[in-house]
Amino acid sequence: AQSVAQPEDQVNVAEGNPLTVKCTYSVSGNPYLFWYVQYPNRGLQFLLKYITGDNLVKGSYGFEAEFNKSQTSFHLKKPSALVSDSALYFCAVRDKDFGNEKLTFGTGTRLTIIP
Amino acid sequence: NAGVMQNPRHLVRRRGQEARLRCSPMKGHSHVYWYRQLPEEGLKFMVYLQKENIIDESGMPKERFSAEFPKEGPSILRIQQVVRGDSAAYFCASSPDRYEQYFGPGTRLTVT
Q1: Distances from the Cα of B8 to the Cαs of A8, A32, B63, B86, in angstroms?
Q2: Cα(A22)–Cα(B32) distance, rounded to whole angstroms?
Q3: Which residue among A39, A55, B55, B99 is buried most deeply as judged by most CB within 10 Å?
Q4: Cα–Cα distance, B32 to B25 (Å, whole number)
């Protein structure tokens, strides 16, 4: 079984400050990990993924995430928040076992950047 | 390269009617996934298809729901005899390689 936890429903950050959106996961084997962002009444936009290799992954719009196997975490970060970063963020995991294709999503974290 | 297309964007059905949701994957993508999002919740996997084949339907309700991805044309998610609990946003995603999934804008189904 695979699962994702996003412990914070809401995160508020002042514009220009660093931001972190937390994600922990559980899989039987090794994980593929993803971050998506959703704007109101829109689909999900892909931000970044961890498949293998370097634990620090860089993605779109200046976001990055660090894979930490010992803590089973994949927190999303950005050094300096923009008001336009305000949106709903989803972490997702997939087990690397062949044939298990489905992404399991967290419940989402609403990020609000305060001007 | 156009993104994943879904239509209609909004669909209103009365209880007992059929809902038919369409998804055209990105060009060159042969893997299609359907997810459902209830209000204030994350996405829940429903079904994974490749051309003409259902690979994983472990998230599909056993009754009233079906999906197909024919050789020609879009993928279709069909819900027969809709009930109020089917009201949700339904998202389609496609992938070229089973890693990144690119999502469409979704179809918001309202059952009255």
Answers
A1: 33, 31, 23, 16
A2: 28
A3: B55
A4: 7
Pairing of strands B31-37, B19-24: unpaired
The yes-or-no verdict on residue A23 having pLDDT over 90 is yes
Residues of B in contact with A101 (CB under 8 A): 31, 33, 48, 55-56, 98
Give pLDDT tens digits for A36-59: 999 887 788 999 999 888 999 999
Range picked from A14-23, A88-97, B35-44 for highest mean pLDDT: A14-23
Give B108's strand partners.
B10, B89
Chain B residue with the nearest C-alpha to that of A93: B99
Chain B residues with CB inside 8 Å of A44's CB?
43, 91, 93, 103
* B4–A102 C-beta distance less than 8 A: no
Long-range residue pairs from B104-107, CB within 8 A, at least 24 positions apart, any chain: B104/A43, B104/B3, B104/B4, B104/B5, B104/B6, B104/B23, B105/A42, B105/A43, B105/B4, B105/B6, B105/B9, B106/A42, B106/A43, B106/B6, B106/B9, B106/B37, B107/B6, B107/B7, B107/B8, B107/B9, B107/B10, B107/B11, B107/B21
Secondary structure class of B107 (helix, strand, coil)? strand
